[in-house]
TrEMBL record:
This is Undecaprenyl-diphosphatase. It comes from Candidatus Heimdallarchaeum endolithica. Keywords: Cell membrane, Hydrolase, Membrane, Transmembrane, Transmembrane helix. It is found in: Cell membrane. The lineage of its organism: Archaea, Promethearchaeati, Candidatus Heimdallarchaeota, Candidatus Heimdallarchaeia (ex Rinke et al. 2021) (nom. nud.), Candidatus Heimdallarchaeales. InterPro entries: UppP (IPR003824).
Amino acid sequence: MLFWFLLLFAVLQGLLEWLPVSSEGQSVTLLVSFLHVGSQEAISLSLWLHLGTLIAVVLKYYKELFFFIDFRDRSPEVVQWRWFILLTTFGTAITGIPCYLLLSYLGESSVFGEYITLIVGIALLVTAFVLYFSRKVEKEGVPIAELSKKRMLVVGLLQGFTIIPGISRSGTTVGGLLFLGVDKEEALKGSFIMSIPAVLGGFTLNLTWSLITHEPVLLFKWWEISLAILVTAIVGFLTIELLLKVAKKYSFAFVCLVLGLIIILFFLLGILL
């Protein structure tokens, strides 16, 4: 029965990754609240399923990625994109690693597990705030290649905080790029390209932490999680174009606000009842 829930979460991850509603936050809330999975295990599963959407991103942007890794091309724009990937990855590590280690440490406490849904709810309210104000500053902006290196680093620092369940990675990074004056199309492309090393880093960090602490990586067998990653990749690749159009056309600030309030209310009712 648990395996079928895993496949359901794989489908959800493939769909929600392209919308700024924190796919990790939704998965963690459902796993902890309804399947009574530990908070650390829920976060780990979310990180592993992100490998599936990473595959979808690579398939979508493979032409751009080829130019970035072809070091014979030294045109100014391509060089700036390489700096963007490098500095956003470095910035993500600066904030993301401490956040992950803190979550892993707190995840060993049963008390933290009881409060994880509250954290997700509050984080979704933060995401709603970011999405609302990023729409206010949206305008015809500059390409990412014209960003200063300092601003590239700032975007990476923002991405690191999105390892916290409930803070949308795409919403935060796209919002940050819009605040910095980047064109929306460029912001979306930049957000997903910078997610590639971030997802690989999160996966590696999770695996390393499990080996150091001798904790089981996941609650599932390897073939089960591999199949789930494949399902996420297929669903993600098939829906990325459509859902990115939806994300560009509509603001999800209200959706995150409502979801955040519902989760907080659910948490409070759990305490009172």
